[in-house]
């Protein structure tokens, strides 16, 4: 019986080998109050946070680096987005205080929550003399809704 030599690939990275999918578990927050509706997920199917924001003037999905997340504060997790930006007049941001929540580790488990969202108008002027006094003005709103466990199955490349 003769042996047949099987050539070895030179670059193993080019092989199309399927890896085991990764299961990503995240808490999904569905909140509303005043004229604002927010859906926030700490980790979407792509592994990055997402935030769907809508009010009477805007409806937009923010993802990844468009969202600033500060974790482990005395207020819980602080999540902020810029909802309006101008070159010469300032910007408007929206911030949600995400409380610490314990829910069972079962797909679809949920619980009711209440928290605060803050719309902040950040004044700016190219004329320094116009920037006197309070520069940030806050409008808080009570948000209520649910937090639930959300699971994604992400295929690894």
Question: What can you see in these coordinates?
Answer:
The protein has 157 residues and is mainly β. It has one domain. Helices cover 0% and strands 55% of the residues. The protein contains no helices and nine strands. It has strands at residues 22-33, 36-41, 50-54, 59-63, 68-73, 76-85, 90-98, 110-123, 136-154. Strands 4-3-2-1-9-8-7-6-5 form a nine-stranded antiparallel sheet, with no helix packed on it. A hairpin with a 2-residue loop joins strand 5 and strand 6 (76-85). The protein is globular. The two termini are 40 Å apart. The mean pLDDT is 82.
Provide a quick synopsis of the model.
The chain has strands at residues 22-33, 36-41, 50-54, 59-63, 68-73, 76-85, 90-98, 110-123, 136-154. It is mainly β and 157 residues long.
Count every helix, treating DSSP H or I runs of 4 or more residues as helices: 0
Low-confidence stretches: none
Structural class: mainly beta
Which whole number gives the mean pLDDT?
Answer: 82
Total tally of structural domains? 1
Instruction: Describe the sheet with the most strands.
Output: 9 strands, antiparallel
**H/E series, N to C?**
EEEEEEEEE
Instruction: Going across the biggest sheet, name each strand in turn.
Output: 4-3-2-1-9-8-7-6-5
Residues in helix, %: under 10%
Calculate the terminal CA-CA distance, rounded to whole Å: 40 Å
Number of strands: 9
Radius of gyration: 23 Å
Strand content: over 45%
What general form does the structure show? globular
């Amino acid at each position: 019986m003769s042996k047949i030599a099987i050539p070895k690939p030179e670059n193993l990275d080019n092989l199309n080998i399927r890896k085991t999918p990764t299961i990503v578990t995240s808490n999904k927050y569905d909140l509303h109050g005043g004229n604002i509706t927010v859906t926030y997920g700490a980790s979407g199917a792509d592994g990055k946070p997402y935030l769907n924001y809508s009010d009477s003037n805007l409806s937009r999905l923010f993802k990844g680096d468009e969202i600033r997340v500060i974790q482990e504060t005395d207020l819980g997790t602080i999540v902020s987005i810029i909802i309006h930006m101008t070159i010469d007049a300032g910007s408007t941001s929206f911030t949600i205080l995400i409380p610490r929540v314990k829910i069972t580790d079962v797909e679809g488990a949920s619980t009711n929550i209440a928290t605060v969202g803050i719309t902040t108008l950040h004044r700016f002027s190219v004329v320094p003399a116009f920037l006197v006094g309070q520069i940030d003005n806050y409008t808080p709103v009570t948000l209520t809704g649910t937090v639930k466990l959300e699971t994604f199955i992400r295929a690894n490349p």
